[in-house]
Specification:
Strand order of the largest sheet: 7-6-5-8-9-10
Mean pLDDT: 94
CATH class: Alpha Beta
Number of strands: 10
Number of domains: 1
Strand content: 15-25%
Structural class: alpha/beta
Low-confidence stretches: none
Radius of gyration: 17 Å
Order of helices and strands: HEEEEHEHEEEHEHEHHH
Shape: globular
Number of helices: 8
Distance between the termini: 43 Å
CATH architecture: 3-Layer(aba) Sandwich
Largest sheet: 6 strands, mixed
Length: about 220
């Protein structure tokens, strides 16, 4: 396994190269919440690139094995974590399920799709962690099913304090392939952003709410 620093930098470089992550300080993106942000992330783009898809699958698989050993099931968080989780399950030869944000309102009204049983150990795969709210909904659904959630692995985290607090409160260990700070450093190194934008990008990381208000 490559070391964590190299993995984080390589992952960030891949995400920037294929524009899975976009940085624009002058013309901020509007998130679904209505907040303004200098960063927009859509890691599903990586699935279109075999080299990057393979890299992510292998790094996820190494993290699962190194951190949690042998687990019974791999679970993906709908929707971004479904394909990534299925690839990891295939790599490790494990059963796969995915978890919706809520129960369906029709049919079998499932929230967890696939076969899983009380007492089984699970690692959850996610593509992106912002506040952690949607990711931890999946964790709670699995625990309500009686499963033992060993932890979660994600491609990218914004590194927000609210996410750290939420994961700590739910007692869930989170491991990511890369993070916001690494991404900004790699972006600056390869001139994806201008040097004068670095301070503003760092300011967003420290206080997204204030940054959004100042850029409305």
């Amino acid at each position: 396994m490559i070391n964590n620093t190299d993995m984080a930098a390589q992952t960030a470089e891949f995400l920037l190269k294929v524009k899975a992550v976009k940085l624009n300080n002058e013309h901020p993106f509007t998130w679904a919440s209505g907040r303004k942000s200098p960063i927009y992330c859509d890691n599903r783009v990586t699935l279109s690139y075999p080299e990057i898809r393979t890299f992510i699958r292998q790094r996820f698989s190494e993290i699962v094995t190194d951190q949690w050993g042998d687990v019974d099931v791999i679970a993906g968080v709908a929707t971004g974590g479904i394909a990534q989780g299925a690839l990891v399950a295939q790599e490790l030869g494990k059963p796969f399920v995915y978890v919706r944000s809520e129960q369906k309102s029709h049919g079998l009204t499932n929230q967890i799709e696939g076969e899983i049983h009380s007492g089984q150990s699970v690692v959850v795969i996610e593509d992106l962690v912002s506040t952690g709210k949607s990711s931890l909904i999946a964790v709670r659904a699995l625990r309500e099913k009686g499963c033992i959630v060993k932890g979660m692995a994600a491609i990218f985290t914004y590194g927000l304090q609210v996410a750290a607090d939420n994961f700590k409160a739910e007692e869930v260990d989170l491991f990511t392939l890369t993070d916001y700070d690494t991404l900004v450093q790699v972006a600056q190194k390869h001139e994806y952003v201008r040097p004068q934008d670095f301070d503003s990008l760092a300011a967003w990381r420290q206080n997204p709410e204030r940054w959004s208000e100042e850029h409305m």
